Amino acid sequence: MGAVIEIGTGSLRADDVVAVARDGAPVGLSAAAQAAIVESRARVDALAASPVPAYGISTGFGALATKHIPPERRTALQRSLIRSHAAGSGPEVEREVVRALMLLRLRTLATGRTGIAPATADALVGLLNAGLTPVVPEYGSLGCSGDLAPLAAVALALMGEGSVRNRAGDLVLAADALPAAGIPPVVLAEKEGLALINGTDGMLGMLVLACADLLSLVRHADLAAALSVEALLGTDRVFAADLQALRPHPGQAEAAANLRMLLAGSPIVASHAGPDDPRVQDAYSLRCAPQVAGAVRDTLAHAVTVAERELAAAVDNPVVLADGRVESNGNFHGAPVGYVLDFLAIAVADLASISERRTDRLLDVHRSHGLPPFLAADPGVDSGYMIAQYTAAGIVSELKRLAVPASVDSIPSSGMQEDHVSMGWHAGRKLRRAVDGLRRVLAIEILTAARGLDLRAPLTPAPGTGAVVAALRERVPGPGPDRHLSPDLDAAVEAVASGELLAAAQNVVGPLR
């Protein structure tokens, strides 16, 4: 494990979320956070001793908020809250999502706005550092009041109940795992149950992880487009900076700049350039590549901005304010996060769609400008990459379904007290599937275009694209008779996921934007 990531009272970096979620980086609370937690807990203790009702401290929850709870029943109230709200169902959520959720809840606790007890915050730190990941079922959150059921599953583990996965991935009872890790199970006092479950941490965690993936995949999309433009004997003139400047979207400019860098010095492009080239213009899937990939970048930039704002937020209800007031609020509503999760799913679907169209063009003998049908070694005997396009098309069709917004589908709950919900958790779940689909579609285009470039020999590709083909050939052989294709597809997907193809290009042309 690397250096300890210190959780303070302020914002958290997205890179730190990824490091904890995916790489198991250890965490700790800053001295300022520890002091803020102690101070806000003292305020909650004072309210608990007061005869004046305070929501979640001396009352029930949701539609039962008007019911007063006597002091001797409040520990039972908090325990019952967690047990009843840990009502998820379905398959387990991925480890990285649960760890992101845990970290983001810890970050809100560290602000001193929740009234959590110091021992409970310390137990959450211990759970993360011990590599113990509570089992969180996929279904159960409406995204308001936050991700209740998923967060309740984590709180249940802190109480020593339910199940967790240890660092090795084994399923263990929390009652056994916590003592083995030296973590005392917590007994929740007033307000603590709410403090542990009333946040948008699950959907935010999925947003941060998706943004990290897409920051890489948009550059892979440019890489794939450059390979296809070259393999299809397309022109690079349309990517000129002065043409792109006529429509000053920043993402478009970045995508076009990447295409110019990748195609610079291409003997293949030079072979058909000039007045003798009979084609006036390329198809949209080639010519408009920077416009589509650029719009995805601009959408992603907006999503990153929303994520950064949320990473600076203290989401709880009620919340302990700086002047000591404890007030109910609506900051737990997931609309800001849900909207951008849906927005990204739309952009992902379209980026995959234009990629698949280029793949299909590479395989069509009537549109590929001299390449063999389906890039087959012996067309008729061999089918080449015919069915790889089917796979890409099937994924794109699924991505279009996943692009249907979840955030417009509010369902009332809690006896109509919670009569409008965000469905942000569901938006996050489908975006994760969409990002995986995009990665696979881009990998298929890269695999197909690389084969097309090999078949253009003796002409050679540009230094940048040539480096990508060479890196891919470390995993996947070049043209030849048909062989079992699925392993080749999987190898290409892994090459995209690892970043090695992008690194190969950047080692030649410099950093892509």
From TrEMBL:
<comment type="pathway">
    <text>Amino-acid degradation; L-histidine degradation into L-glutamate; N-formimidoyl-L-glutamate from L-histidine: step 1/3.</text>
</comment>
<feature type="cross-link" description="5-imidazolinone (Ala-Gly)">
    <location>
        <begin position="144"/>
        <end position="146"/>
    </location>
</feature>
<dbReference type="InterPro" id="IPR024083">
    <property type="entry name" value="Fumarase/histidase_N"/>
</dbReference>
<dbReference type="InterPro" id="IPR005921">
    <property type="entry name" value="HutH"/>
</dbReference>
<dbReference type="InterPro" id="IPR022313">
    <property type="entry name" value="Phe/His_NH3-lyase_AS"/>
</dbReference>
<keyword id="KW-0963">Cytoplasm</keyword>
<keyword id="KW-0369">Histidine metabolism</keyword>
<dbReference type="Pfam" id="PF00221">
    <property type="entry name" value="Lyase_aromatic"/>
</dbReference>
<feature type="modified residue" description="2,3-didehydroalanine (Ser)">
    <location>
        <position position="145"/>
    </location>
</feature>
<keyword id="KW-0456">Lyase</keyword>
<comment type="similarity">
    <text>Belongs to the PAL/histidase family.</text>
</comment>
<protein>
    <recommendedName>
        <fullName>Histidine ammonia-lyase</fullName>
        <ecNumber>4.3.1.3</ecNumber>
    </recommendedName>
</protein>
<dbReference type="InterPro" id="IPR001106">
    <property type="entry name" value="Aromatic_Lyase"/>
</dbReference>
<dbReference type="InterPro" id="IPR008948">
    <property type="entry name" value="L-Aspartase-like"/>
</dbReference>
